[in-house]
Amino acid sequence: MYNNRELVPESVKAIWNECLSIIKDIVPEPAFNTWFSTIVPLKYEDNTLNIKVPSVFFYEYIEEHYCDLLKKTLTRVIGKGAKLRYTVLVENSEDTTVDLGGGHSTQPSSMPNRFDPFSVKTHEKIDSQLNPNYSFDSFVEGQCNKLARSAGQAIAKQPGGTFNPMFIFGGSGLGKTHLLHAIGLMAQELHPDKNVLYVTASKFQTQFTEATLNNKTNDFLNFYQQIDILLVDDIQDFAGKTATQNTFFQIFNHLHQSGKQLVLTSDRSPKLLQGLEQRMLSRFKWGLHAELEMPNFETRKEILLRKVEDDGLFIPNDVIDYIADSVTESVRAIEGVIISLLAQSTLTNAEINLELAKRVVGTTVNIAERNITISSIQQAVCDHYNLDISEIQTKSRKREVVQARQIAMYLARKYTKNSLSSIGEQIGNRDHATVLHACKTVTDLIDIDKGVRQSLDMIESSLK
Fold it and tell me: Model-level pTM?
């Protein structure tokens, strides 16, 4: 127990950390990370612990859902008659004092008159900033993007449902921006009453800076409070921008707690992001992660055919096949080759043929070796065993399914740079221990089972 004297800052932290250790054992980890890990203890005197919270909304939520827990925790740590005083970060008015010893939370009469940045009086229709050309109809589906595309359509049909937030990641030019717009356009069509907004992280940063300079931060927060489906592109651009991250953190929490949908994109998975606060990364890990991989040959060819058709061009089949086989960097690189090919043909009055295509490809992109991905491995394994890819994604314990799943994990570890966790997540949503076990099982089978060795040789040959 602590007496009524004022304590030094380190002792105040010790009190709050003792409270947190009790609370952490009681509330679920996501709730703890959202509502308690960000609270800052300020001082302790006269049997009152003063803590700082980010907003009035934050204060009200804690009081509504965790008042009794806080009362019991502080009574246990400090003693009877313990009081809790809130200091709201975004407000300049007086502190809020809650008497936990009396058994009821009290709120000063001045509180209702405070301006709450999360209080929205009207639900104004806003410009979504969506590009009508980036629809699902123009997004070519392949094994490289099937999960992300399917989940995106599910979100558009039922925003705020199972996949919230959704985190899409992958290299440049693989279709992340296109997919964001497609989700927004479909959602807008199915739910015309909802406000949808596409914004890049850099534009969000610029808006926030301007709002701060013009003393309009509350208007900025109010605007984002109106959004029902928020689509944020290139979230990695928030790296190192602490003030912007703090503001986005508040918006994220409020929208998520209100059942609003968030979809984010990045050039890498959350665990590889640098320069972002841990509390933000923990939010990103709540929902579905969907990786966009390099498209395989068939998908690249379909993208080319769609592009040629949309632009009203005629390109011979052997040229289409050559480009699809040679340009493996990204969808953007494929589109760039088509533009360059058309330009060369027009400017030099040359026929579009294989010779011209080789010349353009040679000067436009690096011709890469065939890229082996987890998706291509799963496809090759399932083709060999005459299975559908969806079967190895299930928890089926059928012998042939289990063996195919284990071989896919073994080959993914051998031919890709993905971590064990990433391999497990993409092949049946398993953990890294399962992948380790699968690799050991296949290694043992290679030594004693001729059939497994032959199957592996055939699958590996098809990959190269």
Answer: 0.52
